[in-house]
Amino acid sequence: MQQVETNKSWGKIVPVIFVVIGLGTAAIAIGADQIGIGGLPGFGPNQISLTISGLALLVAGVAMNSSVNYRRIGQWLLIIAGVIAVGLAADLLIFGGLPGTMFKQFMLLTVIAAIALTAVVASPVLSRKSLVEWLKLAVGQWAQVFQFALIVLQLGLLILLVRSFELESQAFYNSVMMLTFYGFLVHFFLPMEYRMPFFLLLSLVAIIGIFGAQNGAWLIGVGLAMIGVCHLPVKYSLRVGILVALGVLLAAFRAEALPSPVPAIIWPILGSMFMFRLIIYMYDLRFEKEPNFWRTLSYFFLLLNVVFPFFPLVDYNTFRRTYFNGERFKIYQTGLEWILRGALHLIFYRFVNYYLAMAPEAVNTASELVQYTISNFLLYVRVSGQFHMVIGLLHLFGFNLPETFHQYFMATGFTDLWRRFNIYWKDFMQKIVYNPTYVRLKKLGTTRAVLLATVWIFVMMWAFHSYQWFWLIGTSDLTPHDLLFRFLLTILMITSTYMELTRGRKRSLAKKAWDWREIGLAALRGAGTFTIMAILWALWTGNSIAGWLALMSLAGESVQSILMLLAAFLGIALLFLFVTVLEKITNQAKERLSQGGTILKLGTVNGAFIGAILLLGSPIVYSRIGGTVQAVIEDLKVSHLSQRDAEQLRRGYYEDIMGVNRFNPDLWEIYSKRPTDWPLLQDTEAVDLTTDFLIFRVNPNQSIMFHGARFSTNEWGMRDKSYSLTPPPNTYRMAIVGPSYVMGSGVADNETFEWVLEDRLNQENDGYPYAGYEILNFAVAGHSALQELYYLDSKVLDFEPDVILYIAHQLEEEVIIRNLGDRFLAGSEIPYDNLQEVFQRAGVQTTMTQEEIERQLKPFAKELIGWTYGQIVAMAQRNGMSPVWIYIPALELPSSDEVTAELRQLAEAAGFMTIDLSDVYAGQDIDKIIVAEWDKHPNARGHQLIAFRLYEELKARSEALRLGLDEE
Predict the structure, then answer these.
(1) What is the spatial distance between Cα 634 and Cα 623, in angstroms, rounded to a whole number?
(2) d(Cα 865, Cα 834) in Å, to the nearest integer?
(3) For residues 663 and 540, is the Cβ–Cβ distance under 8 A?
(4) Residue 717 pLDDT > 90, yes or no?
(5) Which of 33, 291, 675, 891 is packed most tightly, with the most Cβ within 10 A?
(6) Helix H segments across 619-772?
(7) Distance of alpha carbon 928 from its chain centroid, rounded?
(8) What is the pTM of this model?
(9) How far apart are CA 103 and CA 53, in angstroms?
(10) Per-residue pLDDT reduced to its tens digit, 462-504
(11) Contact at 8 Å (CB) between 666 and 645?
(12) CB contact at 8 A, 512 and 445
């Protein structure tokens, strides 16, 4: 009897305590300003956090003493409170500002406590136990408590790792990762029936938080409309027809064939969520007897998809079947291991991209060909890293999905590669394309049916890839080299499949002893598969078939080249042998570690490994190591474009190279955000392409909106105000030449640094010694030093400037080689005999591709720069002008001190007065001084920094330049 009374008293006291604390917390929220904890005046984010805490405790207290039906209402309210709390804590839901850290922590703790204790009361077993019994039960579950703590610790360390290395986008590592962490803490304590709804609401919060309320509502609304069509009470075929019609309409909006009410910013994510999942869902819907509302919406609006447009192709049936289909801690631990694997892949990707990857035109020798092909193929590790990260994080919410890639670089044949490489995509193609085709063709015999189905699957793969690219980027990717790549890959797959059918595939469930002959043969097969794929990958990701063939021709240039390639293949084979042996040893160690069934061992080892990486990435540690190691680690912790990518991005300012960059993940990510109304300058009426040496010519008297700013040209075809041909009396005139950021791409006419500098010179001039100063802007986007030399000779000198300001940047060599090759290939008249001599010495032929020509000219880059600088100086001095060389770094990539020093040395040797502004952006957040993420030109603020600094540098050289700025 006393036991019953104890239970009743405990059951009444705890709810009352929660109600009292909840009311007290809400009262504190109301009076927060009076007691000095409110932050900003008014009912701000701190008060909102306290209110959520108070309401959660109040609802929990009331629910504990309520009937089952009312308790369920209380639990739903707590789920909503939990989602809002997690969104606020992750800084994705913002109401008048961000709450303080202490308020976030208190809010999360109170919401978790409210959810956990309400779940205890709702349990028919636990609710009947006394307080003492419940505490004893909790103590008896110390192993699970420790496991949970270990999972949280590992997840916390992984988040620190991701944030420390700034992996992927800022929205991911700053916001969505924290949303996942806090969401996991709440999700863990929820009863099973509420976990899927919570996951869905969390996913919707991520969409709203990343896109904003309006754009997020559009994405969710369009998605719900398509899902709704899937469940219309009409025949299956009619639903499919309606979906196809709706898809055609949306495609017309995406292609801008029709005016679209849908915000352009949501297309890549909307496409990523629905372009394939609708196909899978409708396929599986025929066999699902009881569709689940929460599961269906969760499948389409998957958390993390909002920050990863290129997303694993999750199968609906697998998604449904694997939800909490095993022991929960084992699912969590597997997810953490995959998150770590993904993080390591992404860090390795940066290393390859920053230090190994090359542009095709930079390849000149057989050894560089090996480096190019291998590193180019290795770059795909970013995709596997993203996929491992995504699926690992989904494990934390109970989705025990299989791995997406399985050691694909270690494939020992093409059918083996097919089974290891992007497994979700393989499963999709097999389910939707291969299996139905095989069934229809089976009457032709097994071998014919398999081979024909294999051919059809690769045809459909191309169609689906084009379809995918359209939704993600808005254009098709049909190119000749893409077709050739798929044709060759199909031939290899058919051959491999046929050999497997005729010889049989070796299978064994028994543990194999060490067979060194088999290991050696596997290493050779693996090296062969890897080498062929790397060569084909260079074709797929290249610019053209001709460019690829030109690259491959380097392999047979000489006996030394052939020996080099054989040595490289042998090295790959030995590496495969080493990795195979290491894998066997590692697997045996993992097997021994997992024996006994303890997640604790695996978690401890995993946590220690994560901690070791974090320590290595800590400035305190790597600064003590110093040298190259420190420089590399510091570089790997920052996301930036490699020099190869920066040059391609720069080319994208005046070349349509969208298709070229489709397989470059960094550039694809940038271009996917670029608005469709962001034209190339030569696609406007302001600039024309020419057939002569200039390449681009600015048209006079134009006024257009270009990249969001007014772009005007004067009567002489300058991006500047009107000037007379002859300088006005007693006027100091300067002429400036340079590339697109000097021309002022992306800023208004009066915001270019030369305009700002001219204004300042005239504002601070009192009429002595000059009546005024003029700076004439002759800069043209896409010009190299050679075009600027030609422009000076043919036009600029007529304006009789006192000073020539030549603006240089870190890509001088790349641009001069590219433009010279382009003019040779275009058949333009080359105005300088010295350049014709360089063509002869480089062995350039008209039958070569652009990449081949650039490769041949590359060894002459410094010579060409030095010669051009010398010609500019000589021309200026003959006409009584002072030549000034000014280094202003482009913002596409960090400026190299070595490159700057080399260019400055060439300029000084030519006779230039030099000004080095390589540190003009020092201390600035680069993202805040560029036009846009996809356009790295300096914005108005960036131009102001240049103008102010250049004024000081010119003033310091006033006497030498006879500027009169040092005179009173």
Answers:
(1) 9
(2) 12
(3) yes
(4) yes
(5) 891
(6) 619-625, 627-636, 643-651, 665-671, 740-743, 753-763
(7) 19
(8) 0.82
(9) 9
(10) 889 889 888 887 776 677 888 898 889 989 988 888 888 887 6
(11) yes
(12) no
